[in-house]
Design a protein that fits this description.
about 230 residues, LUD_dom, alpha/beta, globular, Rossmann fold, four-stranded mixed β-sheet, NagB/RpiA_transferase-like, single chain, FTHF_cligase-like_sf
């Protein structure tokens, strides 16, 4: 069914005109979604973020840009290798290339890069074989301990899904109060006519599932462990 016919059918059932140009006004009397956590400054958001992470089985490390390589090495020592990483220029910008290409391989720890030059099967096989999936987050949400990931070419979402441990690098300046502000930032990109990534993923720590008896099971649908590395000077 064509779009116009589909919308016309819906409109007729709802006894209203078809409107595809003017957005309906949302003049709510109360807007708690825009007020919760917003009085906090960046340092206070970090405190709230860390507190929430204790509830979602996620470790938080604080470091600086200069010491990021050492922090990642500590995570590798904790979880073991191999690593699966995105083909992301930020790894080079944050001086992680020597760690990936020289230091870790010298320790017999492989680093797999998700790449469009590889087949789909190769990328998934490497992500599945990795012990750690390491990515950069776009935003982090204090209320829920969530990181927002942009999946695109060279940044397959399987990197954060298939390995045993999920590790996200978070510039502290990217901390936001809650999902409301992240959605607003994404909408601003749309309004500017910018292309959006293939997928926008909201990840809150390791995979958590609960059965009918309310027993929590971790790692059924994704990583068993998670660590966030917060860069306090970025």
């Amino acid at each position: 069914m064509e779009k116009t016919q589909f919308l016309a059918t819906l409109a007729s059932r709802l006894q209203r005109d078809v409107n595809t140009t003017k957005k309906p006004a949302r003049n709510w009397q109360h807007r708690p979604q825009e007020q919760h956590y917003t009085p906090m400054n960046n340092a206070e958001l970090l405190v709230a973020f860390k507190e929430q992470c204790t509830r979602i089985h996620t470790d938080v490390m604080e470091t600086t840009r200069e010491n990021l390589s050492e922090a990642v090495a500590q995570v590798v020592n904790k979880y073991g290798g191999p690593l699966s990483v995105w083909d992301d220029p930020r790894f080079a910008e944050y001086a992680l290339t020597p760690l990936f290409t020289t230091i870790l391989p010298a320790q017999n720890t492989a680093v797999y890069t998700w790449s469009n030059q590889k087949t789909r099967e190769e990328n998934f096989a490497e992500a599945n074989a990795a012990r750690i999936g390491l990515v950069f987050s776009e935003y982090a949400l204090a209320e829920s301990g969530t990181v927002v990931l942009y999946s695109a070419d060279g940044a397959g979402k399987a990197v954060g899904l298939l390995p045993h441990a999920f590790v996200a690098i978070i510039p502290q300046s990217s901390l936001l109060p809650r999902m409301t502000q992240a959605s607003q930032a994404i909408q601003q990109r749309v309004d500017r006519g910018e292309l959006l990534p293939h997928a926008i993923d909201y990840v809150s720590g390791p995979s958590n599932s609960a059965d009918i008896e309310m027993k929590l099971v971790v790692g059924v649908h994704g990583p068993v462990e998670a660590t966030y590395i917060v860069l306090t000077d970025c």
